[in-house]
Design brief:
This protein is α+β, with helices and mostly antiparallel strands. Helices cover about 55% and strands about 10% of the residues. Helix 8 packs antiparallel against helix 9, helix 10 runs antiparallel to helix 11 and helix 13 runs antiparallel to helix 14. The longest helix is centred in the N-terminal third of the chain and has 23 residues.
Length: about 425
Amino acid sequence: MTIFSTAGLFIALSLLIALLLAVITIMPWLRATRTSGTSVDNQLLDINVAVFRERLAELKTDKDSGTIDDAHYQNQKLELERQLLDAQREVTPMVAPGIKSRLIIMVWVPVLAGLAYFLVGDRTPVFDLWTAEDKVAQVADDLLTGKINQPPAWAIEDGTQLISAMQTNVYRHADDPNRWMRLSELFLSLEATDSAIEALSRAYRLSPDNEEIATTYAQISFFANKGQLDASSRRVLQDVLAKNPQHEGAQMLMAMGEARGSNFAEAQGWIKRLRESIAAKPGDHSKALASLDELSANVIEQEQQAAQGIEVTVSIDASLLPLVKANDVLFVAIRDVKGGPPFAAKRLPISIIKQGKASIRLSDLDAMMPERTLQSARSDKTQLAVVARVSHSGTASAESGDLSGNPVVISAEQTQVNIEINQQIP
């Protein structure tokens, strides 16, 4: 099917619908009564009758009020009745529309409707989509169904056409999890991580028992969140491990996520389970076991660094809790009181706040730059301040409407601090 045949089909259907609407509009004309006599327009007679009644009512009022006498009243009443009888004798023939008028309406209504469709708005995207569908629709379907792994060279001459065709194909088969999975791979190749995660989430909702889809969804979400397990990815991994406790990929993600979340004992527990699972398999797995030992040593080092950090207890004033939204982000940082980039900072989902409070540890693991660490600031006796803010937009810079607290100055030796978010930025 070419673009001309597709466009022609669309135009033909549009004109047919417009023609049907036009016929419905002029049905009263088509159903006009055909009689041997001449049709009469009774509108003028109805008006005369209404005027007669008004004048008669006025005369009656004048008579009752004594403005005119009975003789004058009777004379005026007879004159009105005579005028009304004369009006009844004068009739205006109703001119029925001819066939030419009807045809003009039937032709121009669909023509004007079509012109309005094409001229009022820009239909270029629609035509581009038709072109893409006619050119690479089959290639897109083959890619999404796994019939081919790479598109032919001619199909990627215009990459946007193939992408549009693939997206259209997936939405036409919205109940197919595998198509959503392959669409996410396309988004990942284009570095469109957010779109890839959305596609994977749809695939997972359609097929929650598919381990490949589930672990891929959790993995992409994990790395998109900079190595942190959010509530969604953690729940997905827990579901996978509940069905398959020996799933190595899920165990590794749990170990890395717990380590990144400063849950070091849990991370070591997952590493131990994974090591035992791999060691129990036949064959030489020395490289994999050595990698796990290295990961375990790295977790121990992180735990030691975290122990030298500062425990920050963040609380939100009860009067501000109704202003907190589910998609808000909590920023906590330690910086020089004189300003500059923070020595340690964390960006956390607002769900970490439980009953208006959360405990967060900041250390050199949360340094923004390798050379600007909390340990170096303490060595230099830098006066530090802790800041906390709830952001509605999720951006690092403060914006109007965000919730914040006054900076809390701490000493170089201090290891614990409380900060309250108690004001809204105007």
